[in-house]
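Q: Predict the assembly, please.
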Amino acid sequence: MGKPPVGAGRPPTSVDIARAAGTSQATVSRALNGGRVAAATRERILAISRELGYTPNAAARSMVTSRTGLVGVVVSDLTNPFYPEFLEEIAACLGARRQHMLLQNAAGGDEDAVELLLQQRVDGIVFTAAVEGSAAVAGLVARRFPVVLANRVVDAGCDTVEGDHPAGAAAVVDHLAGLGHRRIAVLAGLPGASTSARRLAGIRDRLAERGLPEARVVETGFDYDRAVRAATELLTGPHPPTAIVGLNDQVAFAALNAAAALGVPVPARLSVAGFDDVRQASWPTLGLTTVRQPLAAMAARSVALLNERVDDPSLAPRHEVLPAELVVRSTTGPRPEAREP
Amino acid sequence: MGKPPVGAGRPPTSVDIARAAGTSQATVSRALNGGRVAAATRERILAISRELGYTPNAAARSMVTSRTGLVGVVVSDLTNPFYPEFLEEIAACLGARRQHMLLQNAAGGDEDAVELLLQQRVDGIVFTAAVEGSAAVAGLVARRFPVVLANRVVDAGCDTVEGDHPAGAAAVVDHLAGLGHRRIAVLAGLPGASTSARRLAGIRDRLAERGLPEARVVETGFDYDRAVRAATELLTGPHPPTAIVGLNDQVAFAALNAAAALGVPVPARLSVAGFDDVRQASWPTLGLTTVRQPLAAMAARSVALLNERVDDPSLAPRHEVLPAELVVRSTTGPRPEAREP
DNA sequence: AGTGGGTGTGTATACGTATACACCCACCGG
DNA sequence: CCGGTGGGTGTATACGTATACACACCCACT
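A: Predicted assembly structure:
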């Protein structure tokens, strides 16, 4: 008896609405998208479409408009709390422009992630996981596909947005040096990770400027478990550092936990600092001293740059640096008394 | 001169490949998708498609196959670390089936999120944020749209997967009661959040069974900041509890932090327990006693149930309960000496 | 030599939408 | 009274892919 309004069949189309309303499909499309349609007709069409539970087919629409309103976002590790916070900001910025986020986790290389995003014909891609020399990114840039690197800088000729790593690194070094620390260790990401590389360079430069000994650097790839092991080795080895800087909060927490497991009091015998100012850093139980990244601003600028490039792919690449700020909490303190033999 | 292999133009299509290979578009499609094609022809087509940087248009494909290979996932709060961990599991399960995840954050109601997912014609939706009586979910179920509720149970007639909340809650109560606690407070989610409701019911039941006084319950909506305020009020009020149970780890951490800010030692003067066993719970600096949810299994079963329903939408609704397990760490201890006047 | 089946290919069509174009009608100014 | 204008609508087409169908072969078997 009639076609079932509630059933398993395929979803209603604009043609179904047209038939029900006694108009052409074109008029339905116009009514739904704000074209010139008689008020009465539009009213009728809207009513029917609501009654039928009509939902426009994004695929069909994108075929003719050649725009999807989707923006790809590639992250390297969702469980690093930095990313969820960043993604919420990104999603908010996109939402304001009626765009949506297509998230891809690129744990094992970004080739697959990019491939999927291209198949979905996203309007552009925001990378937060680009590794120096990523073939995937290079390929996109060569094709003039809209790409923004957020919190990452690669020499590829595309737009980038990052915190002021040199300034942040200098602030950490100044803070620790001011507390008397001289044996400073660093937990870094992989050598190819540009964020890590730039923060590390900033630390090295400042140490050199102040005539302080070089830092011991362990590359853990920002992997939590490896960072815990590295910190444990540092603390139980021959000349333990009096301060450990994690190049993101995730590994700084790892250092904190390694110290706790070993019974090393923080900050009495060990100072720890990080980068990002993730939400947990401000927890009283953790109280991590860290370099805050301007999350909201980074997200906003990333989305803005991307959309500008979508509208005009011939733009020259731009590089934006946003201010970063040291937040001192309770994991850093004066260098402990040396108790050499 | 010639068509630019590297340029800003629209991406190459299967027709472009056909033209270059001197075949029909149909043969290209067959060659790319494993149809019967002469070996030599297939080879030539693959070479050309690689050379042109061809990427199939998912929209066009989905129009004819009426399958997108996309699965919608709705979460309520990405910054609750439970979700990133869960999403990684989900993504892994989907990847094994060559499906992909379309993530939606439903902070302010799930209507908009569902609408977008429907427009994208996802094959099905996994909800981790369904609130009791969600109109959006009810509508989907009525239309027989494939839906799975993970870690949520609503009386809507759809598939659900959840941890064993009653057992978990009983284990927490037994543990605390065994330590001598009698004044137990609970930080709960909103009344409509089914996970919260079921865990709370479990706690109440077990307290009653053991003849213990009723728990004081504060509904914070699983919001971190509100949970901190609530815990602070509990601890500074007239009859402070000796134990606080957070109905997820997020709010348990909030209690921990409130205690730390007030200088209340844990577990000496206050015991704290949570639900989920998020990664941070095992950190030595936090060491949260909590009820572990079987994350990987929940993800696997959710994806499996969803796909079974995609293949056969007429299936009767199924409800799976997976074992949960109490993990005792360092935030719970014996009830402190009563120091009444 | 004729039939049958299998292999490789081309032709044609469908999916659902937006939009260029043509058309009709009512109205208004000259 | 007529040409123009503009609002409202229908017709036709394009987007890129998968696939049903038809067809042209070639080989093997009776």
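The first strand of chain B starts at residue 70 and ends at 75. Chain B has three domains: 14-56, 69-163+295-324, 165-293.
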